[in-house]
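Exercise 7. Predict the joint structure of the components listed below.
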Amino acid sequence: MNNKNAMDLKELVYKTRSFRRFDESYHIDLKVLEGLVDLARMSASAANRQPLKYLLFNTTEFCQRIFPSIAWAAYLKDWYGPDSGERPSAYIIILGDKSITETFSFDPGIAAQSIMLGATEEGLGGCMIGSIKREALRNDLRIPEKFEIILILALGKPAEKIFIDEIKDDDVKYWRDDQQNHHVPKRPLKELILKGYLIG
Amino acid sequence: MNNKNAMDLKELVYKTRSFRRFDESYHIDLKVLEGLVDLARMSASAANRQPLKYLLFNTTEFCQRIFPSIAWAAYLKDWYGPDSGERPSAYIIILGDKSITETFSFDPGIAAQSIMLGATEEGLGGCMIGSIKREALRNDLRIPEKFEIILILALGKPAEKIFIDEIKDDDVKYWRDDQQNHHVPKRPLKELILKGYLIG
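Solution:
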C-alpha cells in the first residue's frame, strides 16, 4: 500500500470516524481492499488461530445487493441510511471460519480497526456495522453455514463532516446539526482512566 | 503523542508483533500510557457507548503484582513466561464498565489494536493477554465487581526478535528457534480472501 497521506497514528486515529455518507461514484480498486485485508492478516490473533475470512465487494451490483442487509445509525430516528448517490462503494464482510474455531475472541475488532485505519490512510472512510440482516445476506450471497457473519465494513469516499464533541449529561447519542454535520460525543480521558481505589 | 518513529500504517502493523520478552529496566512514562489510552478513546465504539475503562501501571511494585495473574504463550510448553529482567515494565488493564452495558461488542479488540499500534510508534511493544487469573487479579487490585476484567496489555521495550513465517500444514503454533528467536506462522492472503461461490 502506498502511503498516500503520511500522518502519525494519533492523526490517523482521530480522522478515522464512522462515516455513513459517501461519494458513491468513487470507485475503490480491488487492490486497495486486498491491501486492507493484508493489514488485518498481520494483526494479532488469539492463539494465532487466524480464523477470519474476508469477502470483498467493489462493484455496483454487489454493493446494491449488500446495502439492504444493513441497519444504519440507530440513534438517527428519521434517517434510514444514505440515499442513492451517497452509499458506500465497497464492502468488506468479515466472516468467522467455524471449521477453525467457534470463538473468535477479540480478533474481529482488532482486524476491523487495522482495516479502518488503513482506509483512512488511503483517503477513504467508512463504518463498522454489526447490525446486519444475517440470514438474508447469507442467502443472497450464498455464504456457507461454516462461516459466521461477524461484521460488515462499509467503505467509500466520505461526503460528510464529523465533529467530536465533549459529552454532556452522559448522553452518548450522536446527532446531526442543521447543516447535516454529524456530531459524536466522546467521554473525556479522565473518565476512562480509573484511579484511586487500588491502593492498600 | 510525538511521532518518534514516522512510518506508514503497513510498516506499523507489520512491526506490531506479540512481544513477550523485554528490557525490564526500561521505564515507561505515565504520559505515554495516557496517550495510548487516548488512541483507544478516539476509536470506534458500538452505539458510541464507550463502556471501556483503563487501569495504568508503570511501577515495579504493581508490575510485580500483576505478572503472576498472566498465563504466557500457551504453545511454548517449556516456557512459563519471561524471566526476571525480561518482564514488562508497564500494563494497561482494559475493563468493561457493566453499569454502562453488559455487552462490550467489538470495542475491546478495536481499542487494544489502537493501543498496540501506538506502542509500536513509541518504540515499545507488547502482548494482548486474555488468559488471566481474573479473580486473583480482582482481589489483589481491589477491582469492583461492576468492572469486567477483559484484557491485559503487557508493554515494554522489546528484547526478542520475531519472524513471520509462511504457514505449513495448517500449523498455527508459534515456536522458538535455537537462538531463542520467536517464529509466527501466518496464513497467506489468498487463503483469507474468499472467492468463487458467490456468483449466481
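Discussion. Chain A has a mean pLDDT of 94.
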